[in-house]
Structures are given as C-alpha cells and as structure tokens.
Design brief:
heterodimer; A: alpha/beta; 7-stranded beta/alpha barrel; 9-stranded mixed β-sheet; 12% strand; B: 4-stranded antiparallel β-sheet; 3-stranded antiparallel β-sheet; 1 helix; 7 strands
C-alpha cells in the first residue's frame, strides 16, 4: 500500500513538466503585472533529544501546515496548474526535518491520529527536504535561506557574528538543496544598513523587507513598493505588500476572522461549524484576494515603465494551523490566477530578477515587519536585558575562535578536539541569538519558559567556552551538548575569527601593528615614563626635560616608553630617537578644569597599560613626572607589583611660596604628598628642591635623590650673524637678552625697572625680551617710557633663539622662583656672560663671580650693578662664560645624567 | 559532568561596557557597566563614595560630523537614579546620528565622561523629499559575485556592526 502511494506521488513529480515549459505554453504573455507569494516557515528550536511541548508544537505544524502544503503543491503540479511559490527554510527547521529520530517518532504518532497525512508522509519516505528540493528543481518553488538561528540581525553587535549567521545558513542550504541560495529571509524582516554588505559577500541576490523600508527609502522609490530597490551594496530588496498582508493578517478585517471559519470570530456561540460552507467561503475569499491583486496591478501598470510586482510574504502557519481553510484558500488563489484571468502572473523572485536584473539604487530605511515596523517588540522593558549578555557572548566567542587560530599545530589531535568543542560552542551561542526568545518574553504565558531556555543556552555556552579557554574540556558534557543542540553541522569556526585582528591596546590599529613592537621590547626591561606633555606639545619645561632624559636613556640601549596625552594631528604611536611614544586620546566633553582633565588622562593611561600587559607587553618600572600622573602610577604599581619612581619638577607649595590657599592648591598638594610617599624613590633636580620636598612632604633623606636636569650638548652655532645684528642691534647697541614666559615669578618687571640706571651708564644699552605670557601687556606699558631701549619680540622659534643668544652681550634670568632653572643651563651652552637670580635651585648652578653673576632676586640695583659690570668688562664676562661651559660639560650632559639615573634604577632591582 | 540546565546569568561582567542600540526612529536603548577599578578611582578622585556621585548620561547629536568631544550639534544630560544600568531614551530627533557618554558631574557641575558608547543612526520618518542625492552601488560590490570582505563605505557613516 505504502509503496503504491510512494510511486504515485514521488515518481509522479519526477516526470512532471518543468515550470518554465509550463510557463511558455500556459503563461500569460499579456499579463499586466506579477505576483509573488512567499511563505515563511520557522520553528523555534526545541531540544531534539527530548519529547517536550515544543516538539508537540512542531508536530502540529507538520500535520496542519507543512504536509498539507506539500500535498497541495503535488496536486497543483499534477493538475497542470501554472503556479509559483517562494518559501523560506530556516536551518533550525531543516535540521529538525532531517532528524530521523524525530521523524520516526512523528510518524508513529501520525499513524494513530491522521491516516491521510500518514500515508502521504510515508510516501515521502518520511523525508520532506528532498521533496522540497525536487519541487524547487522543477521550478515551481523557490526556497530562500534565512539567518541560521533566526537571529534579529539589527541587534547583533559584531560583524563577525552577523557573518556566521549568514555563512552557516548558506552552507546548510547548499547541503540540502544542492545549489547556492539566491534569496535570504531576514528574520522579522529586520534590516539595517550593513546586513546587505554581508549578504552580498555570500552571493545573496535579494532579500525581503517591510514595505516601509522601500516607501521611505532615500531617494524616494520611483515605482513605490511594486518593484525591488537595489541597496548600495548591490543586493535587491523586495517590499512586502501591505494590502495583501492586511487581507489575511489583520486582526479585524482579515479573512480568517470570518465567522464561517472554524477558528473564526463567532458572534453566536451556538453557531455550527460546517466544513462545506467554510470551504465555499474560502473560495470566495480567494476570488476577492485575486481581484484585489488585479486591481493593484492594473492601476499601476498604466503609469509604470515595467510590470508592477506585488510581493506578498506570509507566515506559512496561516494556511492550516491558524486558519484551517487557509490551505484551500491557497489552492483557489493559484487556480484562479491560472485560469480565471489574464492580468497577473505568478512568479518566483528569481524569475522576476532575470526579467528585470536592474533596479534603482537607494538607501533603505531601517525597519522590521513587527509592530510599528520597528524593533519595539524585540527591544522593550520585558526583554532588553538579554542583549548585554548576547553581545558579551558574541565577543567571547570571537575571542576564543581567534585564540584558536594561533594554535601552533592545527592538525594535531589536541587541536581537533578543541575545534570540535568550539563548533559546539558556536552552535549553542547561535541558538541563544534566536529572535524567538525575545518575542516569547513579551507574553507572560511563555515568558518564563523563554527566560529559562535563554539562560540555559548562555550558561552552557559560557561553561564550554571556559573549558576551551582553560583547556579542560569535559567530553561527557560536550557530547551531551552535541546531542541536545545538534544542528548547523556546517558551521565553520573560522568564520568567527576576528576580522580586524583586534588588539586590546587601542593605540594600535591591529595586532600586526603591535606584534613587532612587543617582540623587540620583550627582550629587555621596559621603563614607562608618564608625563602629561611631551614634544611637540610643550607648555611648561616638563615636556622637554622628559624628552631629553628619555632620549638619553634610549641612546644607551634602554627600552623607554613615554605615555602622554595626544594632540590633534600627532600619531598615536611612534618611535622618536629610540623612544616609544604612546600618545593617548583623552576623553573629554566640552570644558572641564585641568584638575579633572588630568584624572581622565590617568584613566586612559591605566587602560592603556593594562591592555599592554594583556597583549603580552612588559612593564618593569614606572617613572612618574609630577602630580598629574599620580593616579596611574600608583594604580599600575599596585596592580602589577612593579617599582615606581617619581620626579618632582616643582611643587605646588613652592610655586605659591608656601601658602596654599585655594581648594585646588590643597588637592594638588595632597596628590604630590601621596606621590612622593608612595614612590620607591623620589628624584629632584637640585639641593634646593631636595630640601623642599623633604621638608614639605616629610620624606626620609635616603629616599630623595638629586638627578640634575641637563641640556643637549653642543649647540649648533650659526656662523653668519650679520643679518641678525642688522635686525636687532643696527647701531651696535649693547644687547641685554631675556627669553622665557612673561609671568610674575620670572621677575621681568625688575629687569625693566633696572633699565633707567643701566642706560645712565651705558647709553646704547638695549633690552630684548622674547616670549609671551599673562603679564605681557602689563610689562609693555611698564616699559613704554623707555622707547627704543626695550623691545618685545613675542614668541620666537628655536632658530631665532639660537641666533639671539649668540649676539647677546649679556643674558639675564631675573626669576623670583626657579626650582631648577633649565633656562640658565640653556644659556650657558652659548658661552655668553650671564646674570641670574640668586634663588631656588638655580643658584646652585653657578658660582658667583667665577662662572657668572648672581643678583639678588627682585632687586633692580643689584641687577644694574652686575649687568653694567659685564658689559663694561667684556673680557671678564667671556672668561666666566667659558668656565660655566666647562662646568656644563662636566655635570649637565644628558649622557652623564642618564648613567646616573640607570644606577638609581638598578638599586630598585630593575635590571636595565 | 556539568549540567545542561538550571543556569543563572550573572548580571555583571566586571569591565567597562557601553552600548546603544536603535529601537525606532525616535528612541534608543543603552546599557552600560563600569569596572570596579574605575569606580574606586572615581571615588578616590572625588574623595567620596561611588554611590554618592551624580551619574549622568550625556547624549550628543553628532549627525554628519567627526565627533571629538566638544563639537556636537546638540546634547542633553540625563541624571541617572541609583542604581541603574540601562535606559531607554525617547523623543529624539529622527534621521540623526547619536553618541552617548556615561560619566559623572564634578562638584563644579562640570561633566566628566568615563565611557563613550558606539554611535548609531535613528532612521528618518516619512517619505523622502525631493532632491535627495542618487546613490551608486559601491565599486567593490558591482560584480555579480564578491569573494572577499567588502569594506564598509562612507554612507555607513556610523558602523552598526562593530568589529572585535
């Protein structure tokens, strides 16, 4: 008996006429438009190894919808009807249809309940997929693939994960249907820009969107929703026709609500369901449905340049499960289009595309076919919480897959075991991505079940991912999971591998950029200098001091990194004169005070150093420069147990002459206190500063070490100075030179006050002041009565500075407060007579009357006396300058200083 | 053997997260998490406890610009209740690109951003007006079959799909 039916049904189709032949003999060459009926099928995943409510639901779907639908197709083919369907097949559903155990159990159940269906099912040899393939090959049906686990694509976070949804589906499709899919169904019609880019990569030619995506596309569509649009990535999108779907799916006016139908809306509770009446109604509705399509097509055909195309996708479940007479309705629709009229013709999407391969290009609107055409039903207060977990799982999956590719021997037994576990990990994760969970959470009846399933899927995923990471795979667990989630047999773990070759160290574009750096720096101890500014960014003297020190260390073969804040236009990472400079972008939002900005910088430094360590980099020593980097220095010292040293270039206490008035000053003072106390060693530049920090911060004298600042030697002299002289001292004036910031503590005002007395003795004396600052205008008005004897240059570049130093008769540094006085050292390099203030750390630099003069700070008379003396007795001045230069060479060359610092590092067991 | 069911999800991942996702043309969803390290550092910086700080989300409209931190068209702040780790933002302009910052107010009521989110574009509502520029198919995607990764084009001026 069974055999007989089998031969009747299957073989009958084997010898059936191909659809294209039927179209040429029985088609409608004068049709005014086309109609495509797409039936979407999807089944929420149910654990395949168990008898559960889900499986029962699946059986219902088989009995009420899928099998009658297949029977309908066979019937139409045998009756020589020229019809077309498109249908989607999600990989989850195909894996269930392919599962022999399920199919056998289903058959047993069917045998007892439904003989007609049972006979048909047996005639297919319990194999639905080959039957579908056969019908597709005959050309009556076109099957579309679907995102592998029916994930709502716009809410996926990473491109990798999106890619796997598509690639797995495409491979699965090829396996079942022996060819590449041309179309892809986007779950819930969820589209966002970028989805089409991935579809194109996998050879997909078209997908389906909600009508609003086309209606509101940019630019406006010329043919409304009655022709597909092409996206900028070259994939065509068909619009779901709003009118046809309303006629069936509308909760108020939809056909299935009719009271004659079995599940229709009954006003009268005693109404009797009469199948023949219901079937007659279905036929009537089919006629109406076809008439409406004809009306649509005829209306637009008048103004269109091509045949209008009505694209109507429906959930297949409407035809059987939700609407018993639906299958009869479908049959009548096909038959009526076949004979009753000549205006429309049924087409598959591919047939349409071969007739009209070209489409207008536009950007589609992000949309779905859910409520309001938005993501609302998938992202609301009932289900929003799942996305954080899904996104984290995506990233973990990508991480473990990427790590796997670094395995040395991919052919080894060990690697194949890991690969097997990774595949299962991917499957379980993808099941969690299914849009069903979010949808089911919306209804209180199904919510608890969806939540539990979702948690279990993610739980199993993380369990297995953890095993892979620690290389402790429990094979019993793996096997159990493989049985439970046995689908997506064609998943390729390599599709999960990170596309960008991501590195956690965000200053580097990708892994290949950082690997050579890590390789070279890993051989020796790494010193990290933390400084808020570094050349070319330079506000105070700190920037240059850190650069010169770092470059001197690098010159001696040390691995030196500088972490600093970035500036527009500067590279995020570069190696300058041997120093690895990491410039970190600092997050900001409009204005914040420097004090808070520096904290943001510390956060960036901490993130960067942790990432550096994660990426396999070494951190052997942290060298902090001033209070601005305290937070980062301390955090890294404590986190990685590395020594931390600090250089104090100046103190808040010193800058304010010992009076801390404002809150901010007190906070900065506190940071300095913490920095010096938590550092393993504190470096200062002079005896003066050593006394200051010991006194102010209560430090043990043994903890503070003097490391001089230095200057690069020798300077490059300019040989031809005629032009410079002509420009600045045209009449052979005696030039007094000051360069530096124009702020109160630099004491330029006392130099200006000294000028009248100087001019009194040297009538052709001229003071040249270079630099800018907050006191600039005040100083200018103060010097206004001196006329040509004082000249302000504003900002000058290094070249000009060089030349001016060389033509100066005497250089003056009249500061009130100088922790070190690097400017004095810079001046000494030019071998010019020098007058400095007897203050701070600067006074330690020269010996009075031997290497230059030290004037009393803030005392114009003292300045006058020494300046006049040096101009009048030039020989004496020159001798002093020579002696100063020799001292400079002896103590303040950077090479000397770097060696000294290295010794100090070694005392902290850092083997540099 | 480990169990196949009965799992619970821990709600924290112990690192910094801030993701925003489109819901519809006028609203988006945000979730975030701050690492314990950052919480402690912030508390230290302000000499306070983390819970006592005013947590804020600042939403920037950055349509068509390369956002640096101070060049948004418009922005607004939402003060968050304690504790709160996700939020639906409603009533936003459509056809606009957004970025959000999670941060705190300083005592001077200056906003200090801590984590910056991804960017997203809320779709336009309504039919496109006249004069919209024509869009070409990108060069890389013009052949019938593409065998490599197509790089995102400029019209994806924000990236719906990040890379990891």
């Amino acid at each position: 008996m069974n055999k007989l039916i089998k031969s009747k049904s299957m073989n009958g189709l084997h010898h059936a006429q191909h659809a294209s032949e039927r179209r040429s003999s029985n088609g409608k060459p004068n049709a005014k438009g086309y109609f495509t009926l797409l039936l979407h099928t999807h089944q929420p995943f149910a654990p395949l190894s168990e008898e559960s409510e889900d499986i029962q639901q699946f059986y219902r779907f088989m009995t009420l919808t899928l099998l009658p639908f297949l029977e309908l197709i066979s019937r139409l083919i045998t009756d020589h009807v020229n019809f077309r369907f498109a249908m989607t097949m999600s990989p989850i559903l195909s894996s269930m249809l392919e599962n022999e155990a399920i199919m056998n159990r289903y058959s047993l159940q069917l045998q007892q309940t439904d003989e007609t269906n049972f006979n048909f099912f047996e005639s297919l040899d319990r194999k639905v997929l080959p039957q579908l393939k056969l019908i597709q090959d005959l050309g009556y049906l076109e099957i579309l693939t679907c995102a592998a686990s029916h994930a709502y694509l716009p809410l996926i976070k990473t491109e990798e994960s999106l890619k796997v949804q598509i690639s797995t589906a495409v491979k699965d499709y090829k396996h079942h249907f022996g060819r590449e899919p041309r179309g892809c169904w986007l779950p819930e019609c969820g589209y966002t820009i970028g989805v089409d880019r991935i579809l194109k990569q996998y050879g997909i030619d078209y997908f389906v969107v909600d009508s609003i995506a086309i209606k509101e596309a940019n630019p406006r569509p010329n043919r409304l929703t009655f022709a597909p649009l092409m996206t900028p990535y070259g994939v065509q999108a068909f619009a779901r026709d709003h009118d046809s779907s309303n006629q069936i799916c509308s909760g108020i006016t939809g056909y299935p609500r009719d009271s004659e139908y079995r599940f229709g809306y009954h006003n009268d509770e005693n109404a009797i369901y009469d199948p023949p009446t219901a079937n007659a109604k279905a036929k009537l509705h089919a006629t109406h449905f076809v008439q409406q399509r004809i009306k649509q097509v005829e209306f637009y055909a008048e103004s269109f340049d091509r045949k209008p195309h009505v694209f109507a996708p429906f959930d297949l479940r409407w035809f059987g499960e939700r609407w018993t007479e639906g299958i009869i309705f479908l049959e009548y629709v096909c038959r009526q289009i076949h004979i009753g009229q000549t205006s429309i013709e049924m087409l598959t999407p591919s047939e349409y595309l071969s007739e009209y391969p070209i489409a207008d290009t536009a950007k589609l609107k992000e949309s779905s076919w859910e409520h309001h055409s938005t993501a609302e039903s998938l992202l609301n207060d009932k289900n929003e919480w799942i996305y954080k977990h899904l996104h984290q799982a995506e990233e973990r999956m990508i991480r473990i897959a990427t790590n796997f590719t670094t395995t040395k021997d991919l052919t080894s037994l060990e690697a194949s075991k890991t690969k097997r576990a990774l595949k299962q990990c991917g499957r379980t994760f993808m099941l969690a991505q299914s849009s069903d969970w979010a949808t089911l959470m919306n209804t209180s009846k199904t919510s608890a079940y969806a939540i539990t399933s979702f948690k279990d899927l993610l739980g199993c995923f993380h369990q297995l991912a953890g095993m892979i990471e620690t290389n402790t795979i429990d094979f019993e667990f793996l096997q159990a999971l493989e049985q439970r989630h046995s689908l997506f047999s064609h998943i390729d773990v390599l599709d999960f591998v990170s596309i960008s070759n991501y590195t956690p160290v965000q200053n580097f574009i990708n892994k290949p950029a950082i690997i050579p750096i890590l390789e070279t720096t890993n051989l020796h101890p790494n010193i990290f200098m933390l400084t808020w500014e570094y050349p070319p960014k330079s506000v105070g003297g700190l920037s240059v001091a850190v650069r010169d020190l770092s470059e001197a260390l690098a010159k001696q073969g040390k691995i030196v990194h500088v972490l600093t804040s970035s500036d527009p236009g500067l590279p995020n990472f570069e190696i300058v004169n041997g120093v690895h400079v990491h410039r970190l972008p600092i997050m900001y939002s409009y204005y914040t005070d420097f004090y808070h900005w520096q904290f943001e910088m510390n956060l960036a430094m901490i993130d960067h150093l942790i990432a550096w360590k994660q990426a396999g980099g070494r951190i052997d020593l942290i060298h902090a420069h001033d209070w601005m980097v305290y937070t980062a220095a301390r955090e890294i010292k404590m986190s990685f147990n590395v020594p931390m040293v600090a250089t104090i270039h100046a103190t808040e206490w010193g800058r304010n002459q010992g009076v801390l008035y404002s809150d901010l000053q007190k906070r900065i003072h506190k940071l300095e206190l913490q920095l010096t106390n938590e550092a393993d060693k504190v470096f200062v530049c002079s005896d003066y500063m050593k006394n200051e920090v010991q006194h102010v911060f209560g430090l043990n004298p043994g903890k503070v070490e003097i490391i001089h600042n230095g200057v690069p030697l020798p300077v490059e002299f300019v040989h031809d100075l005629t032009l410079t002289r002509k420009a600045f001292t045209p009449y052979g004036e005696k030039m007094i030179f000051y360069v530096g910031r124009l702020v109160f503590e630099k004491g330029v005002q006392s130099l200006i006050d000294a000028m009248p007395a100087i001019i009194n003795q040297i009538p052709n004396a001229k003071l040249i002041i270079a630099g800018t600052g907050s006191m600039e205008s005040e100083l200018k008005s103060r010097a206004s009565y001196l006329g040509n004897h004082v000249k302000f240059l504003g900002y000058i570049d290094d070249q000009k500075k060089n030349e001016l130093f060389q033509i100066a008769d005497v250089c003056v540094i009249p500061s009130f407060y100088e922790p070190f006085g690097i400017v004095a050292l810079e001046t000494m390099r030019y071998r010019r007579p020098l007058v400095i203030s007897d203050t701070g750390g600067m006074k330690e630099l020269i010996e009075h009357g031997i290497e230059g003069y030290k004037a009393l700070p803030g005392n114009p008379e003292s300045l006058t006396y020494h300046i006049v003396d040096l101009i009048n007795d030039q020989q004496k001045g020159q001798k002093m300058a020579e002696r100063a230069y020799q001292k400079l060479e002896r103590h303040y060359g950077w090479a000397k200083i770097a060696t000294h610092l290295t010794e100090e590092y070694r005392k902290l067991q850092v083997l540099v | 053997m480990e169990q196949l069911g009965g799992y619970e999800i821990i709600n924290r991942y112990y690192h910094d997260l801030f993701q925003i996702s489109v819901r519809d043309h006028q609203s988006f969803y945000a979730y975030w998490e701050l690492s314990d390290r950052k919480k402690t550092l912030l508390a230290n910086h302000f000499g306070s406890t983390f819970d006592a700080l005013t947590k804020v989300i600042r939403v920037y409209n950055v349509t068509g610009i390369y956002f640096r931190g101070d060049n948004a068209h418009r922005f607004f702040d939402i003060q968050l209740p304690n504790p709160c780790d996700n939020y639906f933002f409603h009533g936003l302009e459509n056809d606009a690109t957004y970025i959000a910052d999670y941060g705190v107010f300083t005592f001077e009521r200056q906003f200090m951003p801590i984590i910056r989110s991804n960017s997203l574009h809320l779709p336009r509502i309504g039919i496109c007006g006249d004069g919209a520029a024509l869009v070409p198919v990108t060069t890389e995607a013009q052949s019938t079959r593409v065998f490599h990764r197509i790089t995102p084009q400029h019209h994806e001026n924000f990236l719906p799909y990040g890379l990891k």
